[in-house]
Give the backbone structure.
Amino acid sequence: MTKSKAKTKTINSDNTAKTTKLAVTAMLAALSAVLMFFEFPLGFIAPSFYEFDFSEVPVLVGTFSMGPIAGAVIEFVKILVKFLIKGTSTGGVGELANFLIGCSFILPAGFIYKYKKTRVGAIVGMLTGTVAMAAIGVVLNTFVLVPLYSSFMPLTEIIKMGQAIFPAIDGTFTFCLYCVGPFNIIKGLIISVVVFIIYKPLSRLINSLDALLTKKKKATVQ
């Protein structure tokens, strides 16, 4: 193969990988945005304005198949799509919270899986992501998100709603500790179980995408 033909082959391979990655990112982001419309509260653990949905499942698929950065992009695009379709009732606070908390889950999971692409690596990654999401969620909600949200709902009302579930709550920190932390743990575990259940077909998808996206690395001059 001539040098010119080899260069053309490499460029075509690069273009194919980029096009595929863009298409998969858009598809997963769109699916995640749709899933965000099917949300419901977990009233036994947190006030009703904390709602659960399965939108992190496609995001995690993208994270495992294309890497943590791609996962963060999918997370951002899904929220942007929902924002453009539905708008916001919280001045963007809810959307900011969704992005930050989502990233705190998928990024640790993605980085661990990136270096250990096995079933065990996926499980360890998801459990680590769940713990990180719970811990970071408590900190972010205590110092940033709940204070911002109190512009739309008085802080005293937020605390009161938490006390209706856990009477021991006496302030912002205990509200986040007793409500937000457990909510995110339950959310992370549910998402992890769903991904674990679909692991085999998911792994085939991941392997096929990996093979396509790394094809450019295997292009050699013949």
